[in-house]
Amino acid sequence: MKKYILSVALGVLMAAAAPVFAAQDDPLDAQEQARINRQIRKQLVMLPFYTVFDHFEFALDGDKLTLSGEVSRPSLKLSAERVAMQVEGVHQVVNNIEVLPLSRFDNQIRLAVFRAIYSDSTLNRYALQSIGPIHILVRNGDVTLKGVVAREMEKNIAGIRANGVSGVFSVSNELRVEQG
């Protein structure tokens, strides 16, 4: 009789615990996923050396986070991974961030493209933000523009201004236009 009571009690405990174990295996709900995404984005843009010369992207698959993008400083790649691991709900980070080549020539182009874009009367309002929405990535003289602008005209002007900088070999304008 005691064995039966013990096994019934154990069965009742396991049945009561089953929803807890099942909840842990369920994928994140949309609200939790959105919270983690916001927290990751916030942590990345708050990194001390993150500038318009860097660009992060990330994808969250359950508790696995994949970082990608390009940075101008090797230490920024490591910092991004470190802060991402500290976000509650992230248990694994795959760091696919590419460090752009360290080059005096590319640094000169970065600054010249920055001045050309952010000094334009149509685009200078973006320069007032702590980190401008137009990111300038330079690799061996080739420029890639990433980020978001309000209008198609602004995207085109940014591309034209970057193309006009001396020493630039090519410009890939990957700016997105906000959905109005």
Please summarize what this structure is.
With about 180 residues, the protein is an alpha/beta fold.
Explain what this protein looks like in three dimensions.
With 180 residues, this protein is α/β, with parallel strands linked by helices. It has 2 domains: 30-99, Histidine-containing Protein, Chain: A, CATH 3.30.1340; 104-177, 2-Layer Sandwich (Histidine-containing Protein, Chain: A), CATH 3.30.1340. The chain contains 5 helices and 7 strands; from the N terminus they run ααββαββαββαβ. It has helices at 2-25, 30-45, 74-85, 104-118, 152-163; strands at residues 55-61, 64-71, 92-95, 98-99, 134-139, 142-149, 170-177. Strands 1, 2, 3 and 4 form a 4-stranded mixed β-sheet that branches. It has a 3-stranded mixed β-sheet with strand order 5-6-7. Helix 4 (104-118) crosses helix 5.
Which features does this protein show?
single chain, 180 residues, alpha/beta, Histidine-containing Protein, Chain: A, four-stranded mixed beta sheet, three-stranded mixed beta sheet, 5 helices, 44% helix, globular, disordered N terminus
